[in-house]
Amino acid sequence: MAGLTLEDIAREVGVSRSTVSRVVNEHPNVRDDVRRRVLDVIQSTGYHPNAAARTLASQRSWMIGLVLPRSVSSFFTDPYFPHLTQGIAQACNQHNYTLGLFLVGTQEDEEKIFPRVSRRGFLDGLLVQSGQIGDVLIDRLVGSNLPLVILGRPAHATNVSYIDVDNIAAVHSAVVHLIRLGYQRIATITGPTNSTVSLDRMEGFRQALAERGRALDESLVAEGDFSEASGYHAMQKLLTAKPDAVFAASDIMAIGAMRAVREAGLRVPEDVAFVGFDDLPLATPPDPPLTTIRQPVYQFGTSAMEVLTDLIENGVQPARRIMMVTELIVRESCGASRRA
User: Fold this and answer.
1) Is 123 contained in some domain?
2) Sequence-separated (6 or more) residues with CB below 8 Å from residue 68
């Protein structure tokens, strides 16, 4: 058949063009039955791949890199990142990619990792969790022309694709909920103040107070680092300001803070109400169950991988911006059922 293309074979078999390309280039990550069907069509039509195109295609590594700003120990203790990675890994399996994980806990780690992940031919694309403001690694990767998707809003890199949730609107809704329940001294435990996610969540907190004519009381603000221990210590500081409700910028910090409240002889939610952020599986077991902002962490990972696959297949321009939906999940820790 003259002029037969990969698209023609893909339509005949009922698979994607990229799957046919993987078969032609003898990539191992193709199901046996699919490979057999593609080869049958190739044989019956007499298709012969263009030698130059095949050489170019063979430069694909079929490997995706995931860079997380975490040490090995914190990666396994923070439930957010394993959940995110699970979603990414599932999408990699569906697209026949291998996932490589790179943990960047220090500046030294960053210096070691950049030459590896940016080396031509090593990775087909890269997912990078946004970290601190002024993240030099993201700036360097944007300049490498490697297909790249940032997980979370980058601080100042404008010409780059990213996926995020509207942290400002999500926190605004949570704090308004606490205000409507009648709480007067609403405190917050923030994430690190040098990260965009923490700044956005703090902005949502400020906006909700301002809209209700409330001034921000700095004695009701304490910084954490998204760990349970930091939530515990931040709450110990906040107790002197006598808050009656707390918004914590992550569920795991909320759980640490609730522990500090109980150790102080106080009750949740009778003395101090709580709202967290994430709705990971650990949000339900605490007594009482935690009111929280649900963000689709698993789907966040799969959607990021879908965007990256599109960049690899169709080019990196224009940059994509994907915003995922959040939802306030009301449970007993905010005291809503007691104030109804």
Assistant:
1) yes
2) 75, 81, 85, 101, 102, 103, 104, 129
Domain of residue 20: give its range: 6-57
Calpha distance 213→107 (Å, rounded): 43
Q: Give exposure, 287-325, as e/b (b: 16+ Cβ within 10 Å).
A: ebebbbbbbbbbebbbbbbbbbbbbbeeebeebeeeeee
Task: Report the DSSP beta bridge partners of residue 101.
Answer: 66
Q: Are 189 and 241 in contact (CB under 8 A)?
A: no
Tell me the Cα Rg of the chain: 24
Q: Which residues of the chain have pLDDT under 50?
A: 1-2, 51-56
Is residue 187 helix, strand or coil? strand
Please write the tens of the pLDDT for every residue from 259-308. Answer: 999 999 999 999 999 999 999 887 667 789 999 999 999 999 999 999 99
Dump pLDDT digits (tens) for 3-44: 567 778 888 888 887 788 777 766 666 788 888 888 888 778
pTM comes to 0.79
In the chain, how many domains are there?
3
Residue 116 lies in a domain: yes
Q: Taking the mean position of all CA atoms in its chain, how far away is CA 270? A: 33
63-68/161-165 β-pairing: unpaired
